[in-house]
Design brief:
By secondary structure, the protein is an alpha+beta fold. It folds into three domains: 40-179, 3-Layer(aba) Sandwich (Rossmann fold), CATH 3.40.50.150; 197-210 and 308-470, no CATH class; 212-306, no CATH class. The chain has helices at 2-9, 34-37, 60-70, 83-93, 114-123, 223-232, 246-251, 265-269, 272-286, 291-295, 349-355, 358-367, 379-383, 393-411, 418-421, 429-446, 454-468; strands at residues 45-48, 99-105, 127-137, 147-155, 162-166, 175-179, 208-209, 220-221, 240-244, 256-258, 311-316, 318-319, 329-332, 336-337, 341-345, 369-371, 374-376. Strands 1-2-4-3-5-6 form a six-stranded mixed sheet, covered by helices on one side. The chain has a four-stranded antiparallel sheet with strand order 7-15-11-13. It has a four-stranded mixed sheet with strand order 8-10-9-14. Helix 14 (393-411) packs antiparallel against helix 16 (429-446). The termini are far apart.
Length: 470
């Protein structure tokens, strides 16, 4: 490189002898007193790309280090390892005019990690002054896959001009936006964190978990297995029901299960092939290391859960981040829902309409966690905390009609799966128009003036959430 330099400039750079050098301390940054390396009063900036390690992948040593840094902060165990640098930097910076910025895994700005990391920091007076929303970070190392990251700049001095950098897609160039405030979810809204809550913030039906089979696969049937079983045991037809995981629901896939709730010993005894399956379920449960699983070996004829409301709205737990809306649907107690979905018992068209609206989707995208990059819906974070509108009777009727129009538009394409209907490139015009009308009907319940964009909706939602949780 010195020779290349010489070709360009006619001389080699004056590098030797070395006149300046970095001050490098080869220690564990999490166990080191940072002030012993450099006094806070002598420092202006802290920058870095600390290591990302999810809670499930941390070594016992890393878990101990994280616990020693966050102490008794509730739910800190689920934080990514990178969060340690935020806490130590904040401790070090307090009382000084220092700014910091870290490249980090985007998980610290979504889902259950936001509250344990950011709530204490915000309470102590820390401000997010600039942030890059999720983008793809590529390493120069050979074979190193790109990861989804954010960059967050923060200090105890609140900057007048805050900049939020957004990306049309994760590989695009950043778009700079000057905003009034940046939330821990990296949105242009107040510095508010959404806490997990077991109770509902609004007066709506609860969100239930689906039914976990916990069966080793022996109560579940493919279409071929169902046909074969009925040939051998014709009476089994009365005890077989359609079953839906998220994949079956979204992709129109056929699957069945043995639903033996209420079967008498005499009926069961008359079907030896089903008894063989029950014996395998019992063996599977007894072999588990978890005592809670072994307990259920006593009732091997049934799924672990047996919830069958007369009617409900099904909400898949995970859905592609490409979809503008998470598809949901109505079912009755003849269809069994697994624990890969949620269900809302006795939900009405009004409830369905609000949940399928753009404003609820905006809330879900920001507050929910992610499975890889897919949306991961949750009861305690997304549903229980959602600030429902105070809709009057006429507004509810309008939403119900618009919600029915969405269902009617789906019915125009009986051969298409929900995954296809909600693919941004394949979505039929009738369905898109129906959703646009539903979005407007729900938006009007929050305020008369149209929202400028998603950020405008989120600003209102966070303000309303703050009011409801005072």
């Amino acid at each position: 490189m010195n020779r290349e330099f010489a070709k360009q400039f006619g001389r080699e750079p004056d590098l030797l002898p070395l006149k300046t050098a970095a001050h490098i301390v080869p220690e564990n940054a999490l166990m080191l007193n940072w002030a012993a390396v450099v006094a806070p009063g002598e420092l202006d900036y802290i920058i870095g790309n600390p290591p990302f390690v999810g809670s499930k992948y941390q070594t016992p040593k890393q878990k101990d280090e994280l616990a020693s840094i966050f102490g008794a902060i509730q739910n800190a165990k689920q934080l990514d390892f990178v969060a340690c640098w935020y806490k130590l930097a904040a401790n070090y910076m307090e009382g000084h005019a220092i700014s910091a910025a870290f490249v980090s895994t985007n998980s610290i700005a979504m889902g259950e990690q936001v509250a344990p990391l950011w709530a204490p920091l915000i309470e102590d007076g820390l401000h997010i002054n600039f942030a890059h929303q999720t983008f793809a970070w590529s390493s120069e190392a050979k074979g190193k896959a790109a990861v989804h990251v954010v960059i967050i700049g923060f200090s105890y001095s609140e900057k007048v001009n805050k900049y939020l950098y957004s990306y049309e897609d994760i590989k695009a160039k950043p778009i700079s936006n000057m905003v009034g405030s940046i939330s821990p979810y990296l949105t242009a809204s107040a510095q508010i964190t959404v806490e997990s809550r077991a109770d509902l913030l609004s007066d709506v039906p609860p969100l239930w978990f689906g039914n976990m089979p916990l069966d080793g696969g022996h109560l579940l049937l493919s279409p071929e297995e169902k046909t074969e079983l009925i040939k051998i045991e014709p009476n089994a037809v009365h005890w077989i029901r359609p079953v839906l995981g998220a994949r079956e629901f979204l992709h129109n896939m056929e699957r069945w299960c043995l639903w033996l709730v209420g079967i008498s010993p005499a009926e069961l005894k008359a079907m030896p092939e089903i008894i063989k399956r029950i014996e395998k379920v019992k063996k599977f449960r007894l072999a588990s290391k978890a005592a809670s699983t072994r307990i259920h070996a006593e009732r091997a004829t049934e799924f672990r859960d047996t919830r069958t409301p007369t009617s409900y709205v099904l909400v898949p737990k995970t859905s592609s981040e490409r979809r503008e809306y998470v598809p949901m649907g109505f079912f009755d107690n003849e269809t069994i829902v697994t624990d890969l979905n949620f269900m809302i018992p006795q939900a009405t068209l009004y409830h369905f309409g609000v949940l399928e609206s753009k404003i609820h989707m905006d809330w879900m995208r920001v507050v929910c966690g992610r499975l890889e990059s897919r949306y991961r819906y949750s009861a305690k974070l997304v549903y229980n905390n959602f600030p429902w509108p105070d809709a009057n009777k006429l507004q509810k009727v309008k939403i119900e009609k618009s919600a029915q129009a969405v269902l009617d538009a789906r019915d125009l394409y009986p051969d298409s799966s929900l995954a296809d209907l909600y693919d941004p490139l394949l979505m039929p015009i009738e369905l898109r128009k129906a959703h646009n009308a539903l979005d407007k009907a729900v938006d009007r319940c929050y305020r008369k003036e149209p929202f400028k964009d998603d950020a405008d909706r989120l600003k209102l939602l966070f303000e309303r959430y703050a009011e409801l949780t005072k």
